[in-house]
Write a structure and sequence with these properties.
Blueprint (H helix, E strand, L loop, with lengths): L23 H18 L1 H17 L28 H21 L12 H16 L12 E3 L5 H10 L5 H4 L35 H18 L10 E6 L6 H4 L2 H6 L5 E7 L14 H11 L3 E5 L6 H5 L5 H8 L2 H9 L2 H7 L5 H6 L5 H5 L8 H13 L5 E6 L24 H11 L5 H5 L13 H12 L23 H5 L8 H12 L9 E5 L17 E2 L19 E2 L4 E3 L4 H12 L1 H4 L5 E7 H4 L4 H9 L5 E5 L2
Amino acid sequence: MASGSDRNPIIIGGLPSQVPDFDPEETQEWLDSLDAAVDERGRERARYLMLRLIERAREKRVAVPEMRSTDYVNTIPTKAEPFFPGNEEIERKILNATRWNAAVMVSRAQRPGIGVGGHIATFASSASLYDVGFNHFFRGKEEGDGGDQIFFQGHASPGIYARAYLLDRLDGRQLDAFRQEKSKAPYGLSSYPHPRLMPDFWEFPTVSMGLGPLGAIFQARMNRYMEARGIADTSKSHVWAFLGDGEMDEPESLGQLTIAAREHLDNLTFVVNCNLQRLDGPVRGNGKVIQELESVFRGAGWNVIKLVWDRSWDPLLAQDRDGVLVNRMNTTPDGQYQTYATETGSYIRDHFFGDDHRLRAMVENMTDDQILHLGRGGHDHRKIYAAYKAAHEHKGQPTVILAKTVKGWTLGPNFEGRNATHQMKKLTVADLKGFRDRLHLPISDKELESGAPPYYHPGRDSEEIQYMHDRRKGLGGYVPTRVVRAKPLPLPADKTYASVKKGSGQQSIATTMAFVRLLKDLMRDKEIGKRFVLIAPDEYRTFGMDSFFPSAKIYNPLGQQYEAVDRDLLLAYKESPTGQMLHDGISEAGCTASLIAAGSAYATHGEPLIPVYVFYSMFGFQRTGDQFWQMADQLARGFVLGATA
């Protein structure tokens, strides 16, 4: 055995150190080849060759461990981008009108005596991400099913209202009543997605950070559960969750990623708007949040699509023979990228391209203005479409799209990329004029100087508005929309309750046990029995509910691929693809998310479920109070029991 410096090092996440080398001469030949590539062609070329070998190994089904992160470039190469089926010129006009109305709506609300809150910059950064979804992917409910379930980022609500205004789903009185539900009733618009306040519009309350991604995971899982049990055809439904990179700091945002991968929820897509900023400053000033999130999601078993650069970078990357540009992209921290977003083209030339002659040569024929407009991928419709299409078609894994954007994009130099932009709610006349010019909107200076800036509508018969209606018609109707189609369920006969009414006689039993006995009788009912959804955080045995294992079984889309250790017992642990019981492990947050998804199925899919969530009372509510508030806002229905008593 080799010793000291001759021993093979342990390679974390790579070659297993205990595997013996049966052909050391061949191994040495490969190592010598790599050494030669480094010596003769440089480290960048050797790195490229290694990555290509890993790629080919996977193509040949050689089990090579996943890399934690990839280069700071788009996952989908330009040559692999699909045909863009839309009219980009019209879509840009639609987006410009939406951007304007979203910002103006919040700005108009900051008038004397009102001064309500609101957020302009979040939607400004994510507008293109939503627009491509609305025009090409988000399915409505008019085909009779649940359509897609879309968890909109809470702070982006002004943009969703602005789009609804263009489609005549909302009018100017309602936009002027943003965040004034009482004083402007009945026209008030809730500040954030809020089904209780707007029960015909919003489906999912999301603004409490972290509850959107958590709810989306368990909504996707509930869709699969309902289909597996024959309750609803959810095969066409796709769950989209639009999230912020700062929101990913919340433990609820990342805490349940593995269940989505474990159950192969390829009906789920996260879109993380990586504008690199939170409320106070950079999300990762000295680091790279996209790279960090890529590592987290890859490690959890997700498919990761990075959308970093727009098409203006494609010619430069095509020239990058030595990998020097990619290396600069890899090593520049987010805090510096935010500085580039606020600086001039000459500054970017000097500081990003300037200290390497190969980089300077790439941009020597570009003007400072062209360099300034080298953009981020989250603002490029074609790149976004390619990412969404790849995510929608990917099988076997959930997908996360990490889209790089600029916070406050198009709002002007006082907003774009500034640390304070999240709290900024008012546009000055100068801001409005610059914003109008950038969006090429036919609004006069006089209109902007006369007081409250006007909303913009190109006209009901304009090609933009007709295009919007046509796209939504082709995708099954308008979103967001909340529709209740469920029919009342026939209730069980009185005899179902006979055993509980009879009591326990001389024997003293816990109320939990009495409830479980009643539940067993209710689940035998031919009409409503199959609609019960049992939920517990690894406590079924504690509550005496292991008696349900043999009959109701535990839901697992993969079934039970092992022989249970207690298989000879009457109450053996049994998993099934059609199981009725949800076992979310030691996770009250996951259980409550299942409760919410099941309890709102009457609206989401038009099929009522009856969730029964039993938890250990000392812990269950303490950990999830915010989610119970979310459940009420989502108008969910179900039973919650704090046991044992």
